[in-house]
Amino acid sequence: MKSVFKPLLISALVATAGLAAYAQGTGASMPDGPSMHQRHMDPAKMQEMMAKRATALKAKLNLGATQEAAWATYLAAMQPPADMGARMDPENRKKMQDEWAALTTPQRIDKMNEMKTRRDAEMVKRGDATKSFYAALSPEQQKVFDTSTMHHGRGGPHGGPGGAGKPPAKG
Q1: What is the DSSP string of 135-155?
Q2: What whole-number distance in Å separates Cα of residue 147 and Cα of residue 6?
Q3: Where are the alpha helices (DSSP H) in 40-104?
Q4: CB distance 40 to 88 below 8 Å
Q5: Distances in Å between the alpha carbon of 153 and those of 35, 156, 162?
Q6: How many helices (H) and strands (E) does the chain have?
Q7: What is the pTM of this model?
């Protein structure tokens, strides 16, 4: 039944990936593949890592006073859902596992589709916030943002494992 909860975990991580994907060009690197620790990372540690990356990105962008409001709006949109920490709590994961075990296959499919709809809406919200913030940047800042948020490597364009600004793996 553990495989049923992979979508739940992925949805929580996708919610946090927005800011991380945009800010990974700050020089922080990740191992070549996700470990168990990374998949179940402490939400407080994830928040701390995201804050460090955001601080580094803001410093690179050298924002002016008139851009601060756009930056604040952008950061707010990139925050993970407020209940993410509770969802990742082992006790709550067990409770969710039990709830999912009681569902029929069609009910699980419907529940997964509901979760996908929520994740899609969150992604659209983050995308719109990014476009709005990007429009508030000067052309020079846009180039810095583009460079800082573009990832190459095995993690692909979404800044997954290996995508922290590392060159593509050889061989």
Answers
A1: HTS-HHHHHHHHHHH---STT
A2: 32
A3: 43-61, 68-78, 84-88, 90-101
A4: yes
A5: 17, 6, 6
A6: 8, 0
A7: 0.60
Instruction: Give percent of the chain above pLDDT 70.
Output: 61
Q: Of the candidates 94, 113, 126, which has an alpha carbon nearest to the alpha carbon of residue 16?
A: 126
User: Which residues, in sequence order, are CB contacts of 112 under 8 Å at separation 6+?
Assistant: 7
Taking the C-alpha atoms of residue 100 and residue 102, their distance in angstroms, rounded to an integer, is 5
The one-character DSSP state at 27 is S
Measuring CA to CA, which residue among 12, 5, 155 is closest to residue 82? Answer: 12
CA distance 100 to 151: 36
Where do the domains of the chain lie? 2-158
CA–CA separation, 63 and 56 (whole Å) = 12
pLDDT in tens, 59-107: 999 999 999 999 999 999 988 877 776 666 778 888 889 999 999 999 9
Joined tokens for residue 57: 């990105």
CA-atom Rg of the chain in angstroms: 18
Distance CA 134, CA 128 (A): 10
Q: What is the 8-class DSSP label of residue 166?
A: P
